[in-house]
């Protein structure tokens, strides 16, 4: 079965967040299970692209409104990532360094999708299924089924996976002419609330959509930035499949980004060594419980509550608890965190920015990972943390609810709290600080977490079952 995954991000080519991790891992595990899964993404002027060799496998021109654009499809020569990787390169549009936030972002992603469809159409390829991820590829199902240009592809099933339902990629109707000639009677399938909404269109037009956890599927009908009714009406098309993690990349026994490797037997010593290195670098004490936050500093992640919660916790615990933050995003939160670091240099440090290897060291070296998310479609950080013997402290929502059981319950291993509030976070910090003193219990819980199976094998199988239900002949 030949599958194309379409995504704006893919680790290690270009990563902004968890979307990249999933698209960089799922196809690899699908291929190991016997599928032929490939990834198609925009070309980025980045390290991976410079360090690997590519062939131009297709060249074409297409129209974006009145503008004729030239595009190339590049294929990485050796399939080094465990799957075929294709990049869509469009000079002046898809050849830049960053993934998001350019003023002509809409044009970039529309051109990406059109170039992909033109390529498979004109090169005579007929994949068994096309799997689109998030709104950046959300117009593909509509164009395949309602543009005469792509009639040859109209029988191919499409799956749309929602990693983040807060972002829709919506734009005004004045840009309709960017799309190839479409069936005018079907324009309602593009619309939500008076705009062209790629996420809504994908949910309406795809054969099936998935969310990255079962709880998130339920939550979308209650809160999805205006699409609640759509998710309610289309609920029977949706399936929640929890993400896996790439256990080859995230392996504390072999991770090249860790100064000290460890396994469940050597976890206490291994984590202590990594903690020492981390504390030395950030001027923190190894003897105190160390709680970290890693992620985008945005409201979805609840990061705006962190400064007040950390400040109060430090006071409540008479300086006997330490915090380390790695992230970037909202400038007001960045500023408050930086001030906090100046006020409490012995108890709190902050690294504003993106640093993949520091993230690995933090997962390995800290005792607890705090995730006070308002919205968390799946969350990968808590799974990375547990794989590295670090206890997650999570707000009970979305995928966090589906993957973390409170240690107060039978067989539990994490800390859960109900609200994104200073009060709830402080209570969980207290629970963490008390637990930290019980080293035997901590050791038992670390081993329990490290024994959990968050590998892709299970989730890849669930996607496979879904694909098979759409293509009965395989
Ligand atoms: N400053 C920084 N430096 C280094 N590394 C950093 C970093 N900030 C974030 N990261 C890394 O980026 C990834 C974030 O993954 P998440 O799943 O938490 O986030 P995201 O919200 O982007 O993804 C969305 O898609 C994923 C995948 O489906 C869902 O799990 C999630 O709930 C949904 O919001 C992790 O690998 C984390 O270590």
Automatic annotation (TrEMBL):
Residue intervals of the Glycosyl transferase family domain: 281-408
One Pfam family hit: Glycos_transf_1
Catalytic activity: [(1->4)-alpha-D-glucosyl](n) + ADP-alpha-D-glucose = [(1->4)-alpha-D-glucosyl](n+1) + ADP + H(+)
UniProt domain Starch synthase catalytic: residue ranges: 2-228
Residues where ADP-alpha-D-glucose binds: 15
Pathways involved: Glycan biosynthesis; glycogen biosynthesis
Transmembrane segments: none
Keywords: Glycogen biosynthesis, Glycosyltransferase, Transferase
EC number: 2.4.1.21
Class of enzymatic activity (EC top level): transferase
Alphabetical list of InterPro entries matching this protein: Glyco_trans_1, GS/SS, Starch_synth_cat_dom
NCBIfam families linked: glgA (TIGR02095)
Functional description taken from the UniProt entry: Synthesizes alpha-1,4-glucan chains using ADP-glucose.
Family the entry assigns: Belongs to the glycosyltransferase 1 family. Bacterial/plant glycogen synthase subfamily.
Record protein name field: Glycogen synthase
Organism the protein comes from: Mucilaginibacter aquariorum
């Amino acid at each position: 079965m030949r599958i194309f995954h379409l995504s704006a991000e893919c680790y290690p080519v270009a990563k902004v967040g968890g979307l990249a991790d999933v698209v960089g891992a799922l196809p690899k595990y699908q291929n190991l299970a016997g599928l032929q899964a490939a990834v198609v993404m925009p070309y980025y002027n980045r390290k991976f692209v410079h360090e690997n060799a590519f062939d131009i496998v297709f060249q074409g021109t297409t129209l974006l409104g009145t503008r004729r654009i030239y595009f190339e499809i590049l294929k990485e020569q050796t399939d080094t990532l465990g799957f075929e990787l294709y990049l869509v390169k469009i000079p002046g549009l898809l050849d830049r360094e960053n993934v998001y936030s350019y003023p002509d972002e809409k044009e970039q992603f529309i051109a990406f999708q059109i170039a992909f469809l033109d390529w498979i159409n004109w090169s005579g390829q007929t994949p068994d299924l096309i799997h689109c991820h998030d709104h950046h590829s959300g117009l593909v199902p509509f164009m395949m089924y309602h543009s005469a240009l792509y009639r040859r592809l109209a029988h191919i099933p499409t799956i749309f996976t929602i990693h983040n339902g807060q972002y829709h990629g919506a734009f005004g109707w004045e840009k309709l002419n960017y799309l190839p000639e479409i069936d005018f009677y079907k324009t309602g399938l593009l619309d939500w609330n008076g705009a062209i909404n790629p996420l809504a269109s994908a949910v309406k037009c795809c054969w099936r959509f998935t969310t990255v956890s079962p709880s998130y599927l339920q939550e979308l009908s209650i809160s999805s930035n205006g699409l609640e009714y759509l998710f309610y009406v289309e609920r029977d098309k949706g399936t929640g499949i929890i993400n896996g993690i790439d256990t080859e990349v995230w392996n504390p026994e072999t991770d090249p980004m860790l100064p000290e490797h460890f396994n469940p037997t050597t976890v206490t010593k291994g984590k202590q060594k990594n903690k020492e290195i981390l504390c030395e670098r950030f001027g923190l004490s190894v003897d105190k419980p160390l709680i970290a936050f890693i992620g985008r500093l945005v409201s979805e992640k609840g990061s705006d509550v962190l400064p007040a919660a950390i400040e109060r916790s430090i006071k409540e615990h008479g300086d006997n608890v330490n915090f380390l933050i790695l992230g970037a995003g909202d400038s007001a939160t960045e500023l408050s965190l930086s001030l906090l670091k100046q006020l409490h240099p012995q108890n709190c440090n902050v690294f504003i920015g993106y640093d993949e290897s520091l993230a690995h060291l933090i997962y390995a070296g800290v005792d607890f990972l705090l995730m006070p998310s308002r919205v968390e479609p799946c969350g990968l950080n808590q799974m990375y943390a547990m794989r590295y013997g670090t206890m997650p402290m999570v707000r009970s929502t979305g995928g966090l609810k589906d993957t973390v059981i409170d240690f107060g319950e039978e067989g539990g291993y994490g800390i859960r709290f109900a609200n994104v509030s200073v009060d709830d976070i402080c209570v969980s910090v207290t629970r963490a600080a008390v637990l930290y003193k019980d080293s035997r219990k901590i050791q038992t819980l670390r081993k329990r977490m490290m024994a959990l199976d968050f590998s892709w094998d299970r989730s890849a199988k669930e996607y496979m079952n879904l694909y098979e239900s759409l293509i009965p002949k395989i």
